[in-house]
Amino acid sequence: MKIVIIGSVAAGTSVAAKARRNTEEAEIVVYDQGKDISYSVCGIPYQIGGEVESIDELTPRNTAWFKKRYNVDIFTEHKVTKVNHETKTLEVLDVVTGETKEDSYDVLVLATGANPFTPPPFNQGAYNNVFQVRNIQDNRDITAYLSLKQPKKAVVVGSGFIGLEMTEQLVHKGMKVTLVEMQDQVMPPMDADMAFRVEEHLRAHGVRLLLSDTVKTIDGESSVKSVTTTKGETLEADVVFLSVGVRPNTKLAKQIGVEIGTTGAIAVNKKMQTNVPDVYAVGDVAESFSVITGKPIYRPLGSTANKMGRIAGDVITGGNLEHRGVLGTGIFRIFDLHVGQTGLTEKEAIQEGYEYETLYNLKPDHAEYLGGQELTIKALADRKTGLVLGAQVIGKGGVDKRVDVLATAITFGAKAEDLFHLDLAYAPPFATTKDPVLYTGMALDNAIKRNPLMTPTKILAAQEKGEAIQIIDTRSKKDYEKSHVKGAVHIPLGELRIRAEELDKEVPTVTYCNKGVTGNAAQNVLINHGFKEVYNLSGGNENYQSYVAMLDAIK
After folding, report:
1. FRET partner for 242 with CA separation of 20 to 30 A, picked from 260, 313, 412, 509?
2. Is residue 42 among the annotated active site residues?
């Protein structure tokens, strides 16, 4: 059996390695049009910024290593230009010599990845100071340019993972950075109220944000001197970075009738097989599916690419591995702030038609007396089943731990009540006695069964509609006078039992404190006093004020 793999980064090399581990009988050949193999795309911003000393650290393996270790023939700078699946042959161009050869295969694996999208007007010319971060050659080119030109002003277009990571690193290198984003928030896959916290952090570090805006025109011929946005902002630019997403490289797949899925990537089954016999697709060119909904989704990440490659390599050589889907789990760092998410966001839950409960949980990541700092967890659970649907987590420590625990729990079908019973590691330097994950489960379960939550969105909507609602601020007078929810009356928790008679038991009531705990205690007091409909403001006044600030910023 001869296996030909087109593409040699995370997915392609994983196919080759797993296939070889399973059998010594197969001939395995890999073609890649680039110079480098098996490299870390995700590490490139950090090498450009100087956190990674050498590019060599991002390219630990070369073709000679693979040949010696796995007896796999990898041909770099060789581009497959045509596939004839009827004859199972390939045309391969040596991009260095210009020579073309023909090769054959029994099994074909498409690991052709994805190409960065170049938006207008940048697609209308070639500019020596406009870069995209996609491969090691990009890394070399960017590093050389920054070293030679020493740019002072940078424009970053797009605020996904790479855009934000590059923004961080350029600031570290002393540049003045303007970030332009077509959507009305950074990190568009997140919910706006969580992304706003990232936006505030960016501004606090000197980054200028232009949201709901795009680059319309470019001043400069071979080099960009400045750009002007659709809103009329003119930005001087010594260097420009484009980070507006990628598009699956499906050209070869379409040549031979491989089905393209609803996401625009290649449709595959759980064994990474396409609709064409003996043709597999893995990595950024292939779509995945959601663990929660079962629907196709496209989440091009190196971790997923490695899994897909291993599965295909196993199946091709007689194994029975299957892809089990993804949750879209991701994490990034922006200066000293860590931001992670897993599962469905609130806007995705709405799109999928879920009746859900939303919790904002503000807790220290570990004991405050040992330097614990606040985590903000936004978590969702299905009201009908109690299943945890997703979470977004922001903080300066412990974010990865909580996101991974929640991703694991969701993968195995945990309900909100199950989170509270997890036996998580505790010691003051690492966690609190009631870990933020445990509290998230407890509060979500309570919200579904007895103690409903009110989000800032809903309380403002109710007031906008003129609905009858009474809002109780249970904090100290000092805190109340500093800031409070619009329309709230001040009744400290210690006085609530005595003064409950001042309130109308028939009118929907919202209690709140600074972050949520005392508000929940007040909610219980009123429920036990016979109030018919009592909510706790999720995330308390702190979360409410953040939401109001977001609305003000949009205006």
Report:
1. 260
2. yes
